[in-house]
Amino acid sequence: MRIGAISVVMFFLFLIEGTIAQVFASEVWDLPWLIVPRFVLVGVVFIGLYGGRRRGFFFGLCFGLLYDIVYAQVIGVYAFSTALLGYLAGLATRYFHQNWLLVFFTVLLVIFVNELLVYEIYHLFNIVYMSWIHLFTKEIIPTVIVNALYAVLIFRPMSKLLKQSRIEELT
Amino acid sequence: MSSFFGNKRLIAILMGLIVLIVVMGATLKERPFPTWPERLVKDSVSFVQGLFYKPTMLVSGFFQDVRDIYNVYEENKALKAELDKHAKLKGEVEELRRENARLRSMINIKDDKLRGYKWYAADVIARTPDRWNNTLIISKGKNDGIEPDMAVISSQGALIGRIKNVSHFSSQVELLMDIEQANHISAVIQGSQAIYGVIESYDLEKHELIMRKIPKTKDLKIVPGQYVTTSGMGGVMPPGLVIGRVSSVEEGDYGLTQTARITPLANFYQIEQVFVVKRDFVAKPESIEQEKEQRAKKANK
To answer: Which residues cross the membrane (chain A) (predicted)?
Structure first.
């Protein structure tokens, strides 16, 4: 696995997340729901699916921690959730073959669990509060759908990058 | 499937949870100056990210322009109606200002030190993508004279937040949506009479600020549409920064006070530049305590 190239791509996704969030925020377009870009998490899921659970865990931990330091104020939440979900995504390949449908459903599930987990941890520490109905209909479901579609969109280039590195590893 | 949650994994997850709670507990408190590894990461990421932000804003600016074209006609009509009022107001303000200066000179008040402030312009580098942390990262930090808790206003002049923490070359701005129990804003509703209160929280669902502890007396009448500004009492926020407009008023929690809901005026999205406001005169609680200590020492002698 070309760790270097993949790290660069992941870092790029990380940066884009911070800038694009403001540009395409739904508030700008007067839409009632909120879509959170989770490009890094989708990338971690790809790494977990193609590179195994250990790598998924490792990348998840590093980029989750980076996210916590740069964007969040309390350290630990994203490091925990991203690492855990990267590991779990890595486990999924044991049972299924890699194709875009698997990626689509894994991302769907991972993003859903991630949103819920992050909300629950923040809620546990009394940082945020939101009613369940609003949380699900206005925040989580649009975010999950958009991110899953995004995963399908980048499926080709990402799998190319990750598979290429896998072949190099084997030879 | 039995191996899916084997003993080893379960223990690992539990250990992870323990570490998470310990780390969260340690970092939960207010930290105006982060530790040096954090500062290093923040500064270097903000440097790289700064290169990306401008092009993205250019692209989005184009889309915004296209959208604006549709609204131009309606907006123009409304603005023209507004313009006549504006001319009248301007005359009034000038007159009041002159009168104020004259009255001040009559009773010999020197320039009001509490009102003065200067500002630093800063570029926005990034905005937190998720919902639970509403912060901006801006391109000026400790080396440019930014200090924690300074007020931050948008280029339109409306209050958008305060400085949460500063690194050497960048700092993090906490937006109004993130007001927690710890940092309230002392605000005043502007009307024929100034009505003081405290902005305590933000309703994430309706996008409104909630101002509590407004005294309930007969002659204090709050009308929806009134402007709300900072009061400048305590802390580093100067008076007179516009926050928003009152949207509705209701009874307070125990019936003794009133609660007003305020729609913020600032647009929290697509911000390219912000101004950090530095108040000229800040009364620090520490300095008062020090003075007291010194006095006590003198008295002992």
So the answer is: 31-50, 57-80, 100-119, 140-158
